[in-house]
Automatic annotation (TrEMBL):
Residues 203-239 are annotated as: Disordered. This is Formin-like protein 18. It comes from the Eukaryota. Residues 228-239 have a biased composition (Basic and acidic residues). It comes from Hevea brasiliensis. Pfam families: DUF1005.
Amino acid sequence: MDPCPFVRLTVGNLALKIPVASKPARSVVHPSSSPCFCKIKLKNFTLQTAVVPYIPPENNQFPEGQAQTLAATFHLSKSDLERLVAKSIFAGKLCLKISIYTGRRGTTCGVNSGKLLGKVSVPLDLAGTESRACVFHNGWISVGKEANKGSSAQFHLNVKAEPDPRFVFQFDGEPECSPQVFQIQGNIRQPVFTCKFSFRNTGDRNQRSRSLQSEPSSSRSWLTSFGSERERPGKERKGWSITVHDLSGSPVAAASMVTPFVASPGSDRVSRSNPGSWLILRPGDGTWKPWGRLEAWRERGSSDGLGYRFEFIPDTSGCMSAAGIVLAESTLSSHKGGNFLIDLGTNYNGRSTPGNSNSPLCSPRSSGDFGYGLWPYCTYRGFVMSARVEGEGKCSKPSVQVSVPHVNCTEDAAAFVALAAAIDLSMDACRLFSQRLRKELCQDRDLLG
């Protein structure tokens, strides 16, 4: 089945230069000593914020050799494109609007701390961008009150749209109910996988799941290597496992809870300092091989969300000590849910602010303090995948989008489906232990919370 058309609209290569005033006012915050930022808005999409680097005013060109950084990314489905193009006909030209500020981001007593320098509007014509790339702007724009007098501030940016086709999958039920998984293409729904939720035998930590047939000893050693052998008295949720099968019934991916989700001492929540974790597995060479590791916990504070961290485990010819490469680390709202996102092309710091569930890492980094040493082993670039999950207490049938370049076989797609199931189940695993879980998730009465 063909993938679904998507368009990736990006804003990048930001820079700002401001002419030096002959008599600088003390009250003016100058970007050379204080950071600048901008707010980027596209109709009906979430406002995005990015830092704007300052460069000396004598530079006439965008510095060559500087990293081509992305400040914001908008993912547009076919329905998004149709809606935006239709609106541009009746409501004037569709534009990307950018507000540039000097000073630090944030608010004080409800008032924005940054000072508005100026606004930029970039016209967009998205028709046909599902099949061809289009650059809408690349270069400098004058901003501020002196924009027409030749002595204004200059703002550099690149705005472009590129085709980004994706495979779309939809769970037909909640992962703990062992649902089918459909591939979606327009109005066509085609079954491609089935999921089997089960409990690992809690009396044998080396037995991963009753839903899998016999496993070679090498696969069991991976589980003990990446999992925790801790056994603590008190409240814990453990032993969950979900296996993804193709239509022939062969297992093609799995997610196994290798570290129990345990309430921190004196509380009823899973803490960031002691998270639960899943191992995402793929078949290979007659055994199961680890592909990724997902950690999850319950954030404290006003966000009170699901914190997560996913790291890719590169295949380094059986090297058991290979460090993982962190591909995503952020927070989802426990109440509203959100999008679990792996996007290696957006220039964020990897940690989201409250309410922002889509802050990915700017580039992979090793969990073993090796910097980019393992980066050659990671083949993922740009948008990789997203999975929509619902908040606590809501019926969640995760939808999964995977970029076409990252799917070369059935096992590739199945691994992302297993990861989506794991992040969805983590929403339940990280529920406060004062709350009850649904019966499908409870092997014993003491797991009810």
